[in-house]
Amino acid sequence: MTSRYAKLWAASALAAIGIAQAAYPEKTITMVIPFAAGGPTDTVGRLFAQSMSNTLKQQVIVENVGGAGGTLGAARVARSAPDGYTIFLHHIGQSTAPALYRKLSYDAVTDFEPIGLVADVPMTFVARKDFPAKDLKELLAYVKANKDKVTYANAGLGSASHLCGLLFMSALQTDLTTVPYKGTGPAMNDLLGGQVDFMCDQTTNTTGQIKGGKIKAYGVTTKTKVESLPNLPTLDSSGLPGFEVVVWHGLYAPKGTPKPIVDKLVQALQIAGRDATIKQRLDDLGTDPAAQNRMTPEALRSHLKAEIDKWGPVIKKAGVYAD
Question: How far is CA 283 from the centre of its chain?
Fold first, then answer.
C-alpha cells in the first residue's frame, strides 16, 4: 500500500511540475545584468527584455547587479532557483572569469543553462574630448611618453573594457594606471567629465557620445569599419596590426532549468532578434543581433567553451589575477 501511494504521489508531483512548465511564465521574470545601469550590456539587455516581455506575456525586468567584473551577478544567478524566473545576460566576461579569478563561487560552464547568443558588439578606443592626441599614431606616442600620468578607465576586472586594455598595454609593452569602475556607465561619466583620460568601450555606449562630439574617438576594434561610424578607422589599420576585440553577449538560466522553459525563452529571444525596432536601434549603436542559428543553447554552449580556450592563455600570459 505504501509503495502504491508513493507511486501515486510521485506521479502527481510530476504532473504538477508539467503543468507549471506548461503555464510558464505566470509572473515577472528578472533579467540580471552584472554591470551598472547605463552601460553597453545594460543597453542591449533592456532592448531585448522589452521584446521578450511582449512575447512571454509577462514583464521581463532588468536588475543591475554590478561589481567584480560581472562575477557578483553571475554568482547570484547560479544560486537562483532553476524555474525560469531569473535569467542572466552577460558578455565576453563569462569566458574570461575562469582565468582571471583564482576562486569563483560558480562554474561558468556547468552552473548555467545556455539560452542563446544575443549580439556581437564592436568596441571603440575613445578619450576625453580635450585629449591632446589627434589620431591613433599620436595617441600611441603620447601614451608611451606619459605612461606614468595617463589614466585608463575600465568597468572592472574581467570586463570587456579591462580585456581590451590588457591587449592595448600588451601591444604597446607599456603598463598604465588603470581606474576600475563597477560598469562602463560610471566610467563614461568620468570620461565625459575629464576625470580620466581614455578607455575602450562598446559601440552601444560610445556611438552617441562620438557623434555628439562629447568624446574623442581613435578607432574601432574590429577588422572592418563600423557602418554607423564610417569615418572611424580600425585600430588594426592605424597602428596596432592584429588588434581585434568583439564583445559577444549571451543569455543564460540557472543550471537545471527545465528544457520546456528554456525552449520558451529561446523562442522569445529569437523573436526579439527579428524585431525591426531592435534591429534599427542596434544598428544605430553600431551592432546587430546575433544570427538566428546562433540564438540557441547549442551555439552559446559551443561558443562559450571556445572563448574560454581562446582567452585563458592570453590572460594567464598577462599575469592578471583576482582573489
Answer: 17
- Residue 254 pLDDT exceeds 50: yes
Prediction pTM value: 0.80
| C-alpha cell belonging to residue 289 | 543581433
For Cα atoms 288, 291, 293, give the angle at the middle one, nearest 5 degrees: 165
User: What integer pLDDT is reported at residue 39 of this predicted model?
Assistant: 84
Residue 241 grid cell: 596590426
Tell me if 259 sits within 8 A of 82, measured CB to CB.
no
Cell representation of residue 312: 585563458
The three three-digit cell numbers of residue 53, written as one number: 516581455
Under the banding of pLDDT at 50, 70 and 90, the label for residue 134 is very high
Contact at 8 Å (CB) between 214 and 192?
A: yes
What is the arithmetic mean of pLDDT over 240-261? 96
Q: Is the dihedral of CA 294, 298, 300, 303 positive or negative?
A: negative
**Residue 60, SS3 per DSSP:** strand
Q: In the chain, what are the domains?
A: 2-121+248-318 (3.40.190.150), 122-238 (3.40.190.10)
Q: Is the pLDDT of residue 155 over 70?
A: yes
**What is the full DSSP assignment across 98-137?**
HHHBS--SS-TTTTEEEEEEEEEEEEEEEEETT-S--SHH
Residue type for position 259? K
From CA 9, how far away is CA 75, in angstroms rounded? Answer: 34
Beta bridge partners of residue 30, listed in sequence order: 61, 86
177-193: pLDDT as tens digits: 999 998 888 999 999 99
